[in-house]
Amino acid sequence: MPEAAPRRGRPRDAARDRALLEATLAVLAESGYGGLTTAAVAARAGVSTATLYRRWSSKETLVIAAAAARAEDLVKRPDTGTLEGDLRALLRDKAASLTGESGRLMRALVGEAAHNDALAEALATTFLAPVRSRVEEVVARAAARGDIPPVDDTGILGDLVAGPVMSHFLITPQAPDEVDPETAMAWADRLLPFVLRALGSG
Amino acid sequence: MPEAAPRRGRPRDAARDRALLEATLAVLAESGYGGLTTAAVAARAGVSTATLYRRWSSKETLVIAAAAARAEDLVKRPDTGTLEGDLRALLRDKAASLTGESGRLMRALVGEAAHNDALAEALATTFLAPVRSRVEEVVARAAARGDIPPVDDTGILGDLVAGPVMSHFLITPQAPDEVDPETAMAWADRLLPFVLRALGSG
Predict the structure, then answer these.
(1) What Cα–Cα distance (Å) separates residue B179 from each residue in A157, B94, B110, B170?
(2) Where does A36-175 have alpha helices with state H?
(3) Helices A129-145/A83-97 angle, 10° precision
(4) Percentage of chain B surpassing pLDDT 70?
(5) Is a pLDDT exceeding 60 seen at residue A73?
(6) What is the DSSP letter of B41?
(7) Dihedral sign computed on CA atoms, order A44, A45, A51, A52
(8) Which among A147, B10, B14, B15 is most buried, taking Cβ atoms within 10 Å?
(9) Are A57 and A49 in contact (CB under 8 A)?
(10) Which tens digit of pLDDT belongs to each residue from A163-189?
């Protein structure tokens, strides 16, 4: 994807890119993937479609870039010093990120990805891979400290830890904006003791 | 939903209903929810649309009925006598059911449910609730046998056990027909020891 390479020579370009990505997220939240047009995004960001297309050559690359930017915003990597603390932060972050506007975005993308392979691939790369690697880091640190036995099958850890959260908040009848972040985090706290035991702790 | 009530006075009606539901699943698999028309389903089942509408008054109630019939087909409830045996069967069934045609169906419905509340509700009732109750049964039996300590927070069990499977097979870039049931069941077996430990066993 050469069109996704940054061409950010000037601060004005970076600010304009950011405005376009924010506009993309806003239009996605309002209209869904199917209803999003590059014209609507350009209008919302106050630029011409020609300007948009100089930076992103298609609706798909634009949406993927917006999702990637959002995912980067959401993935923090605190090191609390304990497995329990790290996992609590991770589960709470993930649950909270699947409510509100980012929750609506994820639902729209998961829905579209069901019949759009390129988007499914981007979803895996921008949303799932960072969560997976964060889980693996947290578990590896705990094993290095001797808090838990080493895990041989690290490839399953992302699904084990983040899977219940994603399944609960993405495949349920409840709309993401009906769940407030506090409720989502309280749900994550209920999951925590089970996940700790699964990893050989607690 | 009064139109969903069975009116199966004669065996011929039951056979025709079954044919319509099978036709619905086939058209869903080919065209997705957005592309499905009641006319296409009626034509495939060899009946008039008037006949279809006498039984199901809308596309939505038809698809929901088809999904419910499929879910009933898939949910078996073996009692192997051990928590490990019961969970292995449950995880393997669930993983296998998310490959092939039923996997395509689930993806299509999850995708559509992202912006269709009635369908999201039906998905929860027909697909998620039976899995959830099966998990709860299996865990309750194990606790009753004294194999594991009693679980206070049973409301989380469905997400804990089935969530990783659903997340792995429904929110991934891999198309359901690229995964054969054997591969899916082997993946389920990798998850099993973690889930057993989470429940206080093994």
Answers:
(1) 20, 13, 18, 12
(2) 38-45, 49-55, 59-74, 83-97, 100-113, 117-123, 129-145, 157-170
(3) 170
(4) 88
(5) yes
(6) H
(7) negative
(8) A147
(9) no
(10) 999 999 888 766 666 788 889 999 999
Tell which B residues from 57 to 96 touch A, by Cβ distance under 8 Å.
none
CA–CA gap between residue A109 and residue B168 (Å, rounded)? 16
Tell me the three-class secondary structure of B31-99, residue by residue: HHHHHCCHHHHHHHHCCCHHHHHHHCCCHHHHHHHHHHHHHHHHCCCCCCCCHHHHHHHHHHHHHHHCC
The answer to whether A123 contacts B173, with C-beta atoms less than 8 Å apart, is yes
Residues of chain A with C-beta less than 8 angstroms from the C-beta of B117: 173, 175
Sole residue written with tokens 């865990």: B139
Instruction: Report the residue of B60, B157, B167, B191 to disrupt the A interface, i.e. the one with the largest count of A CBs within 10 Å.
Output: B167
Closest to A19 (Cα-Cα) out of A56, A45, A46: A45
User: Which of helix, strand or coil describes residue B68?
Assistant: helix
**Nearest CA-CA partner of B128 in B101, B167, B176:** B167
Which of A148, A97, A99 lies closest to A127 in space, CA to CA?
A: A97
**Cβ–Cβ contact A13 with B under 8 A:** no
Q: What is the pLDDT of residues B168-191, one digit of tens each?
A: 988 876 666 678 888 999 999 999
Which residues, including other chains, have CB under 8 Å from residue A9's CB and lie 6 or more apart? Answer: none
Indicate the DSSP class of residue A199. Answer: T
B110·A112 Cβ contact <8 A: no
Q: Domains, chain A, ranges and CATH?
A: 2-68 (1.10.10.60), 76-198 (1.10.357.10)
